[in-house]
Specification:
It comes from Azospirillum endophyticum. The protein is of the alpha+beta class and 344 residues long. It has helices spanning 64-80, 102-118, 124-130, 139-145, 189-198, 204-223, 227-249, 256-264, 289-302, 336-343, and strands at 10-27, 36-54, 86-90, 149-152, 164-168, 175-181, 272-275, 282-286, 309-315, 322-327, 330-335. Strands 1, 2, 3, 4, 5, 10 and 11 form a 7-stranded antiparallel sheet that branches. A 4-stranded antiparallel sheet has the order 7-8-6-9.
Length: 344
């Protein structure tokens, strides 16, 4: 959404976008005219950094993620009738096919960088639509724009990402312990499409219960800073949704090793547990940093013989992407939401 008259030539743009946890779908039955509906939250300290400069595309950085970003950039340039005279560089990246939104966040980063560099209006929802992101969930767009805990309203009749209907801040004290399985990858692409197609019908009464659980238990607990009650709502949501997806992913959780860790984590203080999206990344919610760090240390010792497992403690993030522009007058950095409001 970075648009308006450019007062100076922008020569380079750096965008930093956060990872997110997808906590589960609320209504996969869809009998009221909207389907899915998602609850999710934004993570700090884990994200993707992308730089876009004016120059020869042959100067792109190496790697599969950079090739993926180039594909997004070329599609956007074609849609906007722009010459592809830009080069890409990637710094750190969200692990791909891990359930943390790597593809959507990369696509949105490319769109924001192109918007800032050219002055073209590219709101994140339009970028997501052009690049076929956010087909079922609006959590990625919400995390990019604002961060925090996001509830979207599900997919309706419009061919665009679901609207964000609630955004709330995560308490500063809370922590998320991520459980990575580096030997496995979550479903994506055609395999994901087939999995959704072949799932059994979702009962309307379960959808009604999950919506009530989110609205009357989870979000009020969040507003009151009650990690245990919020975590219990997430755990129940995860159990219902995970069991529904079990035929496609081999169980409530896609990684048996992660599942073993998740079963253990409540015994060391986890308020809630689950798997983000198709996984294999698992997570646990804690009400304070000390308990989370202690659980991570215990987990590393307990599973020290399994090199595929990693344990990372993250804060929640109550802000969206950060956009930095470089011109002849120097560098300017701002959170995406502030840049968008100032320049729209």
């Amino acid at each position: 959404m970075i648009c308006g008259e450019q007062r100076m030539r922008v020569d380079a743009v750096r965008v930093e976008v956060p990872a997110r946890l997808h906590l589960g779908f609320l209504d996969m039955e869809g009998g009221l005219g909207r389907r899915f509906g998602s609850l999710g939250l934004t993570l700090d300290g884990l994200g993707t950094e992308l730089t876009l400069v004016r120059g020869d595309p042959a100067g792109d950085g190496p790697g599969r993620d950079c090739d993926r970003a180039r594909g997004y950039l070329d599609r956007l340039c074609e849609a906007l009738d722009l010459e592809t005279g830009f080069a890409l560089r990637l710094g750190r990246t969200i692990p791909s096919h891990s359930g943390l939104g790597s593809g959507t966040q990369l696509a949105l980063a490319v769109g924001a960088a192109l918007s800032a560099l050219t002055g073209r209006a590219l709101p994140p929802r339009r970028v997501a639509s052009l690049l076929d992101r956010g087909a079922r969930s609006g959590i990625g767009v919400g995390a990019f724009e604002q961060g925090g805990v996001i509830l979207d309203g599900g997919k309706g009749a419009l061919d665009e990402p679901p609207p964000v209907i609630s955004r709330m801040a995560l308490p500063e004290a809370w922590r998320m312990l991520l459980v990575f399985d580096d030997a496995n990858r979550g479903l994506s692409g055609t395999a994901e499409t087939v999995a959704f197609r072949d799932l059994p019908p979702f009962p309307a009464d379960k959808a009604a219960h999950l919506c009530r659980l989110a609205l009357m238990v989870g979000l009020p607990a969040l507003a009151e800073g009650d990690a245990m009650r919020f975590g219990a709502a997430v755990t129940e949501l995860q159990s219902v949704v995970g069991d529904h997806f079990a035929p496609a992913q081999g169980g409530r959780f896609s990684s048996p090793d992660v599942a073993e860790v998740l079963r253990w984590l409540p015994s060391v203080g986890a308020a809630g547990i689950g798997q983000s999206s198709w996984g294999p990344t698992g997570f646990a919610i804690f009400g304070d940093a000390g308990t989370a760090e202690g659980a991570a240390e215990d987990a590393r010792a307990r599973w020290r013989g399994q090199a595929n497992l990693r344990f990372v403690v993250c804060r929640g993030r109550n802000r969206g992407a950060v956009v930095e522009t470089v011109s002849g007058r120097g560098e300017v950095a701002a959170e995406y939401e502030k840049v968008a409001k100032k320049t729209a």
